[in-house]
Design brief:
Layout: H1 16-47, H2 53-86, H3 93-114
Organism: Rhodococcus jostii
Protein name: DUF202 domain-containing protein
InterPro entries: DUF202 (IPR003807), IM_YidH-like (IPR052053)
Length: about 120
């Protein structure tokens, strides 16, 4: 008897499988974006010439922004997964705008610190 290491299986009724796969792709995109922002933070902290503590501070801000993006993606993935199973959907207009705004402000703060 084989065991499914990914969790319980779901019946594929209507567009359930397609919806879950789209949710998973979006989740991975959030992580890819978060990793990119964090990698930019590492690059700034490591390679900004003659900036010293300012480069490290800017890098840490960008790393924090990248972690925030990944965390939001994880929370959003789980919420949408539950909504797909319940047959309901509530767009995340407020939380998406707030998260994007915070990340943008953190990036701008990192630029100001670096100058």
């Amino acid at each position: 008897m084989s065991r499914n290491i990914f969790g319980p299986t779901q019946p594929n009724e209507g567009s359930t499988a397609r919806d879950h796969l789209a949710n998973e792709r979006t989740y991975l995109a959030w992580h890819r974006t978060g990793i990119s922002v964090a990698a930019l933070g590492v690059a700034v902290a490591k390679f900004a010439p003659h900036r010293g503590g300012h480069a490290v501070a800017a890098g840490l801000i960008l790393i924090g922004a990248g972690l925030l993006v990944s965390a939001y993606g994880t929370v959003r993935y789980r919420v949408i997964s539950r909504q797909i199973e319940s047959g309901e959907f509530a767009p995340a207009t407020f939380t998406a705008v707030v998260t994007s705004s915070i990340v943008t402000l953190l990036a701008l703060l990192a630029v100001v610190v670096l100058l």
